[in-house]
């Protein structure tokens, strides 16, 4: 493929796609607001990468700090709420 813009920056790709400069490959969470606003359309959905699980590990000898546990709970709730 060829084109006038090539970048390895997700920020630049998102901006280019949002401004109608072509297509890009980005994680859904990065373009979800643009999709919801109708500024971006998802194409080639059958070729989307499979979702990967997120796992957290910590030593049982040293449990996470309370603020870390709160962040983990917040993040888990947000990830569960996110659907495609």
The gist of it:
The chain is mainly α and 84 residues long.
Structure description:
- With 84 residues, the protein is mostly helical.
- The chain is 40% helix and 0% strand.
- It has 3 helices and no strands.
- It has helices spanning 10-18, 28-36, 66-81.
- The two termini are 28 Å apart.
- The mean pLDDT is 86.
Key descriptive features of the protein:
84 residues, mainly alpha, 3 helices
Count of helical regions: 3
Sketch the major β-sheet.
none
Mean pLDDT: 86
Strand content: under 5%
> What Rg, in angstroms, do the CA atoms define?
17 Å
How much helicity do the residues have?
40-55%
Distance between the termini: 28 Å
Number of strands: 0
Task: Find the structural class using helix and strand composition.
Answer: mainly alpha
Task: Sketch the topology as an H/E string, one letter per element.
Answer: HHH
| Oligomeric category | single chain
Shape: elongated
Which regions have little confidence, pLDDT < 50, spanning 5+ residues? Answer: none
């Amino acid at each position: 493929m060829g084109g006038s813009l090539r970048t390895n920056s997700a920020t630049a790709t998102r901006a280019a796609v949002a401004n109608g400069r072509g297509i890009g490959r980005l994680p859904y969470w990065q373009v979800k607001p643009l999709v919801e606003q109708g500024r971006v359309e998802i194409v080639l959905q059958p070729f989307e990468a499979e979702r990967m699980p997120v796992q957290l590990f910590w030593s049982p000898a040293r449990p996470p700090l309370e603020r870390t546990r709160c962040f983990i709970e917040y993040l888990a709730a947000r990830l569960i709420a996110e659907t495609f």
